[in-house]
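Technical annex, item 7. During the second reporting period the consortium partners agreed on a shared format for inverse folding records so that results from different sites could be compared directly. Each record opens with the tokenized structure and is followed by the designed sequence. A conforming record, contributed by the partner at site C, is shown below for reference.
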């Protein structure tokens, strides 16, 4: 039986950009590339679920010496990526893999850069708990994580606006692709469980969208960070007693 989610994204492939512009104007396009210039020179990169390949195109131009692997579960989306780059002089730097990112193996410590744009919001909290550490493990020690996605502002009219936008988006993708999520997963909670250091951050569209560049901490750095947080917690508890 054909996966309904894959079938849905195959159907959406040709019209995806139209619906994106209809719902969000140019905000998603701007967010994808907002911090590309903050990424240092990389030799290798892994892109997860880039859809029709606009970020892949921009990354290839900004990182001309980088070997890029693009993974997507939609064959139609990968076809569009390849068509987009058909005349790009650096097209030979890209390898395409048609598969579900949740099932990929054999990429441990291989890449300098991991790219995820409007991808993690497609998964449940349980999915992220299981798979996000595996995806980050594809990076070499000290590797970089380029993250672009939706978020809910803390309060006020921005939060109300975000809820309306996100509810409409989730209903649409649930209808078209059988997306399991009814609400946006708390991305910050998921990311806080990972050994990451934020290097740069930018919010857009009245804080509905965030673009961030992280560095994955080495084991030694993570141990020191955890020890520091433990010490701060003990000091805070002592001051309250």
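Designed sequence (site C submission):
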């Amino acid at each position: 039986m054909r996966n309904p989610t894959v079938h849905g994204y195959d159907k959406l492939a040709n019209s995806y950009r139209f619906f994106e512009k209809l719902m969000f104007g140019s905000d998603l396009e701007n967010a994808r590339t907002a911090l590309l210039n903050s990424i240092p020179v990389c030799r290798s990169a892994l892109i997860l679920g880039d859809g029709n390949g606009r970020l892949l195109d921009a990354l290839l131009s900004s990182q001309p010496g980088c070997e890029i692997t693009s993974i997507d579960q939609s064959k139609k989306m990968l076809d569009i990526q390849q068509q987009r780059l058909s005349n790009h002089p650096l097209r030979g730097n890209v390898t395409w893999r048609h598969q579900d990112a949740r099932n990929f193996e054999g990429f441990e410590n291989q890449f300098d850069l991991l790219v995820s744009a409007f991808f993690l919001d497609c998964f449940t909290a349980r999915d992220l708990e299981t798979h996000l550490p595996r995806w980050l493990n594809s990076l070499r020690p000290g590797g970089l994580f380029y993250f672009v996605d939706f978020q809910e502002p803390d309060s006020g009219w921005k939060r109300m606006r975000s809820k309306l936008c996100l509810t409409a988006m989730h209903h649409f993708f649930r209808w078209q692709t059988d997306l399991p999520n009814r609400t946006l997963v708390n991305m910050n909670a998921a990311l806080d469980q990972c050994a990451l250091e934020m290097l740069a951050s930018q919010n857009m569209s009245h804080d509905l969208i965030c673009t961030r560049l992280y560095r994955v901490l080495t084991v030694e750095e993570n141990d020191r960070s955890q020890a520091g947080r433990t010490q701060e917690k003990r000091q805070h508890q002592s001051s309250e007693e």
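The two ends are 61 Å apart (CA to CA). The chain has a mean pLDDT of 86. All partners now use this format for quarterly exchanges.
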